[in-house]
Amino acid sequence: MVKVRHLKKIFYTGKGARTAVNGLDFDVRKGEFFALLGPNGAGKTTTISILSTILKPTEGTVSIDSLDVTQEPHRVRQKIGVIFQDPSLDDRLSAIENMDFHGRLYGMSSLQRKERIQFMLSTVDLWERRHDLVRTYSGGMRRRLEIARGLMHFPELLILDEPTIGLDPATRRTIWEYVHFARKEWGMTILLTTHYLEEAESADRLAIMNEGRFVALDTPENLKKQVGPEIVTLESDPDKIELIKSFLCEQFGIKEFRDERIGSFSFPLPADIGNAIHVVQKITVPIQAMTIRSPDLDDVFIQITGKGVSSSSEAASPFHRVYRGKL
Ligand SMILES: Nc1ncnc2c1ncn2[C@@H]1O[C@H](COP(=O)(O)OP(=O)(O)O)[C@@H](O)[C@H]1O
Ligand SMILES: [Mg+2]
Q1: 190 and 265 share one domain
Q2: Residues 156 and 241 in one domain
Q3: How far, in Å, are 90, 270, 271, 278, 281 from residue 274 at the CA level?
Q4: CB 210 near ligand 1, within 6 Å
Q5: Domain check: are 298 and 180 in the same one?
Q6: In a shared domain, residues 208 and 232
Q7: Domain ends where: 183, 218, 253?
Q8: Which atom in ligand 1 lies closest to the alpha carbon of residue 13?
Q9: Per-residue pLDDT for the chain (327 aa), expressed as one digit of tens each?
Q10: For residues 60 and 118, what is the distance between their CA atoms, to the nearest angstrom?
Q11: Are residues 40 and 70 both part of a single domain?
């Protein structure tokens, strides 16, 4: 569905050239859910803007369903629905007017528009409010309206640029329900950018992006497997932390430490070392607590780039086993 080759985008500003996208190669299959995960400034929006014909690439090619985005932007636009990072609704119009305008832009007939507006607004639970000005909508309602609008013309590819940023958890969940519904019902292909790890988790494949490049591309499961079987976090007297780290390094060759809070650090347990409890029992300095969890995508990102995608606590894995007291 999507084919990207040697894609590069350089912005020339007053201060000189800035390479936002620096050589991307990837394909997205029909019906696939593909995620781009990366911190702010990684180049996600720039990539999405090129795919949706808003920006021209500096180098390289992009095709959508075999149509080149620079040669045939109009035909490409018919195939895609885009939900932008920055809201793009007209808030002086009602929901129904925003939808109708969009339908006209896409050349839908009056009957098609009427049927489709009713169906989509009902799906996102806004039919009762259809005549109200968007100005009076909450953030979550606006987002739902944007999703309804993005799906209105039956796009084959839905592109979402950080669609749930700044929304409360309940609205985020609702939006995901619509997106998965569209995917299941219509076999839609989905390309998502996000810096929320749990949104990238449910993708078929995901690319981790940093400074304009992909630093990894695989299924979420395979990426997490590369980190190691488990992440161990230890808590001890802050003065003893360095001592414990050097013991772990000398005895077990463990090198990748990550400081958590004061007096607490974590490390991926190398696969060939075995049981975490046995490792920790060899430490002679008192350990106040030990936590063992499965690696998450933040661990993957840290291992590859040396820094986290997001510092939010939402990144925490639900698969915790906590040991307190004497080990
Ligand atoms: N129109 C522009 N002009 C100059 N620099 C830009 C422009 N758009 C984006 N950039 C720069 O390109 C880089 C990537 O930005 P962006 O694609 O928005 O990243 P992301 O969406 O991953 O946060 C950033 O360094 C950003 O400042
Ligand atoms: Mg962005």
Answers
A1: no
A2: no
A3: 58, 8, 7, 8, 13
A4: no
A5: no
A6: no
A7: 218
A8: 4
A9: 999 999 999 999 888 999 999 999 999 999 999 999 988 899 999 999 999 999 999 999 999 999 999 999 999 999 999 988 777 899 999 999 999 999 998 889 999 999 999 999 998 889 999 999 999 998 889 988 998 998 888 899 999 998 887 777 887 888 888 888 888 888 899 999 987 888 888 899 999 999 999 999 999 999 998 888 899 999 999 999 999 999 999 999 998 898 888 999 999 998 888 888 889 889 999 999 999 999 988 888 888 877 665 544 333 333 344 454 444
A10: 41
A11: yes
Residue where a domain stops, chosen among 218, 245, 269: 218
Residues 273 and 195 in one domain: no
As for how many domains the chain has, the answer is 2
The atom number, within ligand 1, closest to the CA of 85 reads 21
* Domain residue limits at 32: 2-218
- Ligand 1: nearest atom to the Cα of 18: 5
The count of other CB atoms within 10 Å of the CB of residue 128 is 9
Q: Would the CB of 45 count as within 6 Å of ligand 1?
A: yes
Which ranges constitute the DSSP H helices of 127-187? 139-151, 169-186
CATH number, domain at 152?
A: 3.40.50.300
Rounded to 5 degrees, what are φ and ψ at 228? 135, 170
Q: Is the CB of 86 under 6 A from ligand 1?
A: no
Q: Give me ligand 1 centre to Cα 71, in Å.
A: 24
β-pair type (213-218, 230-235)? unpaired
Asked whether 52 and 209 are in contact (CB, 8 A), the reply is no
* CATH number of the domain within which 311 lies: 3.30.70
Q: Which residue's CA is the nearest one to ligand 1's atom 25?
A: 41
Kindly state if the Cβ of 46 falls inside 6 Å of ligand 1.
yes
Which residue has a Cα nearest atom 24 of ligand 1? 41
